[in-house]
Structures are given as structure tokens and as C-alpha cells.
Design a protein that fits this description.
about 0% strand; mainly alpha
Length: about 80
């Protein structure tokens, strides 16, 4: 995978994460779950294809779980930019 392709995929993964967090913030748990299911599907697809994207997907999923446990998604932008 080229660096440009990897960057595009990472952008899509981040957009799904943002969508899930925003939906959760608005009380739309079903929409949030759908976005996370799509993110998890992408993460699974990258398991053997691209370890870097796989790790990033896991990082976002863990971060989402932590934010759900806290009940606060305000700092998601800062935390999602950190490397896994």
C-alpha cells in the first residue's frame, strides 16, 4: 500500500471514529454503533494487510471504549491524534 493510500484509509477510519463520537454525544447510540461496526470491519480487514492501519484502528476502538466509559467525548480530537 502506498503512503497516500494509507493516509486516505486512515482519514476514513478517523472520520468513522468522529462520527461515532458525535452520534454518541447527540444520544444517537444506534448511529454510533453503526459507525464503530464499520471502523471495526476496516480494522479487521487490515489485520494482515497493513499492520500500521490495524494498530490505528485498534487505537481508535480502545479510545472510543474509554470515552464511553467516561461519558465524555469532548477531548476525543486530542486523544485520537496520539499514536497508538
Amino acid at each position: 500500500m502506498t503512503p497516500n493510500q494509507r493516509q486516505q484509509k486512515q482519514f476514513v477510519m478517523r472520520a468513522l471514529f468522529e462520527s461515532a463520537c458525535e452520534s454518541l454525544k447527540q444520544g444517537k447510540s444506534a448511529a454510533s454503533a453503526r459507525a464503530m461496526i464499520r471502523l471495526d470491519g476496516m480494522t479487521s480487514a487490515f489485520h494482515e494487510l497493513d499492520p500500521e492501519l490495524f494498530k490505528y484502528g485498534i487505537h481508535l476502538s480502545v479510545l472510543y471504549d474509554e470515552l464511553c466509559a467516561q461519558g465524555d467525548t469532548r477531548d476525543r480530537n486530542i486523544r485520537a491524534t496520539r499514536e497508538p
